[in-house]
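User: I'm putting together notes for a lab meeting next week and I want to include a structural view of one of the chains we've been expressing. I don't have a solved structure, so I'd like a prediction I can at least talk through. The sequence is below, exactly as it appears in our construct file.
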Amino acid sequence: MLFDSSDDMRKVQRREKNRIAAQKSRLRQTQKADTLHLESEDLERQNAALRREIKQLTEEMKHFASMLSSHEPLCSILTSPPPPPEVLYATHSFHQPHISSPRFQH
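Assistant: Thanks for the context. Below is the predicted structure for the 106-residue chain, given as structure tokens.
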């Protein structure tokens, strides 16, 4: 009978351990679902903001395209012959350092 009692005790301990492990597993699962839900909501907000930005930029692009098409018939640069290459690629008589910010000077 002592053997049976010891066996029963191990079964009870194993069941308790299993119950605790299952409880922890369910809790982790719930936490993961909550985290995914919050991430999903955040991504939805980001997506909506990006869609608004796309819409605004598309409208801006249409505006500039309209301005350009209105300007093109009147543009003297487009109607005059191109300047000779030596004018386009003339060397400048002034020299400026590449990076003029004091924090980049050594």
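A couple of points you could mention at the meeting. Residues 45 and 51 are 10 Å apart (CA to CA). The chain has a mean pLDDT of 84.

User: Perfect, that's what I needed.
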